[in-house]
Design brief:
Layout (H helix, E strand, L loop, with lengths): L13 H5 L3 E12 L6 E7 L2 E3 L3 E5 L6 H8 L7 E6 L2 E2 L5 H5 L2 E4 L11 H12 L3 H10 L15 H13 L5 E5 L7 H16 L3 E5 L3 H7 L2 E6 L2 E7 H7 L4 E4 L8 H4 L9 E3 L2 E4 L4 H13 L6 E4 L4 H9 L6
Parallel strand pairs: 4-9, 4-10, 7-8, 8-9
Antiparallel strand pairs: 1-2, 1-3, 1-5, 5-6, 10-11, 12-14, 12-15, 13-14
Helix pairs in contact: 5-6
């Protein structure tokens, strides 16, 4: 399956107009672990384009390479081949320090020392990064931890630890925020708060890259999506573009379901035989033109049609289509 490219090279091309300022760009980014017959490619020739000021939802089944990709973007893993560009600059040993100063991140487990309080953990970050008290106070306030700053982190719930990790990532007021599963352990109210926070940050010009196993949450916060399957980027673009990539099934209500035969569907491009259920006769894979031709054939054959409609597709439906049902996120 081809992957839409969000171009970062001006001028020319529709994508250059839609996304003129790309913060993260990778070219043929690949990571292979092991050698010889034991070699395993986890990230396979990835071309990411993440525009400035968006929430970029990074989706994929477990083991698809999301965390490995994020670690390469942060310089925590060295690519086997390919390249990473951040803010228009190549990521290498010489540039890494300066680039990382502009990035906040939380990958996998939230950071923090359990024997220290939340405030003490934040002061470590403050001293390490040379930040002001105002930076720390703002970060704690954004994630609603001001009232718990003097509690030991070992007494925090998982959700509170997640929020502390996000506060650490936000302390330096980054231009790019990379978060791996930031809503783990949060209750619905906490998830809602983090979603609003990330959307608000994007509105201020911060670029947010977030992975999550909660498809509904990504659907509600992300304006651009990237979907991995077995280390390959199978889709990249807006939600509207994603939904257009998958053709919803056609549901036909008729008193003569047995009349919807393979011969009637021949040449229409259906992805399988018509299936009869309580909802009606389901036909998969028909384009709008093919659906119109089906209606013409039904009328010509004098087959009564009580209702004809497209089944509503969710982000989860399209995700399963793209990844072949490869497993949980």
């Amino acid at each position: 399956m081809s992957t839409p490219t969000l171009s970062c090279t001006p001028p020319g091309g529709a994508d250059a107009v839609r996304f003129p300022d790309v913060v993260v760009a990778t070219r043929e980014l690949t990571k292979t672990f092991g050698r010889g017959e034991a070699a395993r490619t986890v990230v396979d020739r990835l071309d990411l384009r993440i525009p400035r000021g968006v929430v970029y939802g990074f989706l994929g089944p477990n083991g698809s390479g999301k965390s490995t990709t994020m670690k390469m973007l942060l310089g925590l893993l060295t690519p086997t081949s390919g390249s990473v560009s951040l803010f228009g600059l190549p990521l290498d040993q010489r540039s890494r320090g300066g680039l990382m100063a502009r990035i906040g991140s939380m990958i996998e487990q939230p950071p923090g020392y359990g024997h220290l309080t939340g405030a003490e953990n934040m002061r470590l970050v403050q001293r390490m990064l040379g930040l002001s008290d105002a930076h720390v106070d703002r970060a704690l306030d954004l994630v609603r931890l001001t009232g718990h700053r003097d509690r030991l982190v070992k007494t925090y719930s998982m959700g509170m630890k997640q929020r502390l990790g996000i506060a650490m990532a936000l302390a330096r007021r980054p231009e790019l925020l990379i978060l791996d599963e930031p809503t783990n352990g949060l209750d619905p109210a906490g998830i809602e708060e983090i979603r609003r926070l990330l959307i608000s940050l994007a509105g201020e010009g911060v670029t947010v890259m977030v992975s999550s196993h909660l498809l509904d949450e990504i659907d509600r916060m992300a304006s651009v999506l990237g979907i991995l399957s077995a280390g390959k980027l199978v889709f990249q673009g807006t939600r509207a573009e994603l939904m257009r990539r998958s053709v919803p099934d056609l549901l036909l209500a008729t008193p003569r379901p047995e009349a919807i035969t393979p011969a009637l569907l021949e040449g229409l491009g259906a992805s399988g035989p018509a299936l009869t259920s309580e909802a009606g006769v389901r036909v998969a894979g028909l384009s709008p033109d093919a659906a119109a031709e089906l209606v013409r054939r039904l009328v010509a054959a004098d087959i009564p049609v009580h209702e004809l409609r497209r089944e509503t597709h969710s982000l989860e439906d399209v995700f399963i289509d793209l990844t072949g049902g490869a497993g949980a996120l």
